[in-house]
Amino acid sequence: MATLELLDKDRRVKETVELPEAIFGAEVKTHLLHHVVVAQLAARRAGTASTKTRTYVSGGGKKPFRQKGTGRARMGSARSPLLRGGGVVFGPHPRSYEMKVNRKVMKAALRAALSARAGENKILLVEDLELSAPKTKEFLKVAETLGLSDALLVTDGPSGNLNLGIRNLKSFKALPVSALNVYDILSYEQLVFTRPAFERITEVLGR
Predict the structure, then answer these.
(1) Angstrom distance (rounded) from CA 45 to CA 54
(2) 118 and 86 in contact (C-beta within 8 Å)?
């Protein structure tokens, strides 16, 4: 069974933790990762694009010109899609882009993403990531000590100082463990867990 060193913010090793094989040593099924990432990105789409068909375009009650004698094709309404200002044929209407992902598939994809990062030795386990003040400079010192450059930081719950400390840094993102998802895991090169977050995700995915 693979192991992981538990570090403090000064990169001192506190102990060694075993990585459950079922969660961090699972088969990396790329089709599951693709399916879940596509579903996540689709769910973010607003789906608010809208056009008016000829039913909803104002006006058009009067026949635009007489039926015969003009040399033009007959026309009964100025709301026709053939005319400028008329209705739109087959245009977009408000809709939901959400795709259904079964709970088992979501968990399997999470295990695959975690296993992929574990196989690349890109997972770091730290005691905590709390900052004494919401300062970017303070976080960067911690990141430099831990060797972080492009990382997803997973904590046990919302962390005010940490979120404020990294809000100007595009290479870092903090998430509570309850919001951990496949897309964010794959979007960053490194994955950092605090001890409580690691225990929580191990408990949830190990069921």
Answers:
(1) 27
(2) no
Q: Return the structure tokens found at 46.
A: 């607003």
Q: Are the C-beta atoms of residues 67 and 73 closer than 8 Å to each other?
A: no
Domains, in order of start, for the chain: 3-28+97-205 (3.40.1370.10), 46-96 (no CATH)
In sequence order, what DSSP letters do the residues of 33-52 get, joined into one string?
HHHHHHHHHHHT--------
Angle between the N-to-C axes of helices 30-43 and 103-119, in degrees from 0 to 180, rounded to the nearest 10: 120
Dist CA 138 CA 164 (whole Å)? 11
Other residues' Cβ atoms within 10 Å of the Cβ of residue 6: 18
Let me know: does 108 contact 29? Beta carbons within 8 Å: yes
User: In DSSP terms, which residues pair with 176 in a beta bridge?
Assistant: 155
- pLDDT tens sequence across 160-187: 889 999 999 999 999 999 999 999 999 9
Reduced to 3 states (helix: H, G, I; strand: E, B; else coil), residue 112 is helix
d(CA 102, CA 177): 20
pLDDT tens column, 86-142: 999 999 999 999 999 999 999 999 999 999 999 999 999 999 898 888 999 999 999
| Dihedral sign from CA coordinates of 16, 110, 37, 43 | negative
Residue 119 CB neighbour total at 10 angstroms? 14
